[in-house]
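Hey, I was hoping to borrow your eyes for a little while. I've been puzzling over a protein and I'd love to understand its fold better. The fold is given in discrete form, as structure tokens running alongside the sequence. I'd be grateful if you could look everything over and explain what you see. No rush at all, and the record is pasted right below.
>
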Amino acid sequence: MSRASKAAVRDSRSGAGPTVAGAEPGPNPGATAKFGLFGEVLTVGLLITAAGLAVVTLPIALAAGVRHLRRFVSAEDSRAGLFWADVRRGVVPSLPLGVGVVLLAAVLLIDIDLAGSGVLPGGPVVAAVGWAGLAALVTGILLVAGAWDPDAGWRSALRAVPARAASDPAGTAYLLATGVFVGVVTWMLVPLFIPAIGCAALAVVAIPARRRRTV
């Protein structure tokens, strides 16, 4: 096979070029270019940060970022305009969820702070409950973002969370670790939130699609 033919087959399998007979595209063809995927993750991090500046819009920003990366790794149309189209469709219905998440997070953080100050009796227990609540909240937001679809809406995404978490406990644990990672790197240096949230969006896409060990 000539060099040109090999290049054509490679591009066909990666989704970067026209389909060649006998060369079926592999899974996630858009993810075969590692540097391109890295650049797209950074781009998505910027988009999510820009759309989530109001804080209460973070759920829709993350959900739109997840959908954007799904399109990219599938070698589908992944223009930034489609990200903003998802944001526009989902931002108003997402506001109750965003406000609720912000209020709950604020209550948990206040409890943790008070527990550390010694004002509350049973401070260590209160702090442990607070951190566990934050972990559950962050994991839930990642699960909801992965389940959201502009046609089905947020209620459908919320109803799907328990089943998704129960069907893949290991994947849920990975998402929890992802949330912890975003929190830690942001605490270390706030600008790192941009690449970290992009990585979180990629994790929401990649974790359910990973190979699972069969018994």
Q: What stands out?
A: The chain is about 75% helix and 0% strand. The radius of gyration is 20 Å. The longest helix spans residues 80-117. The chain has a mean pLDDT of 85.
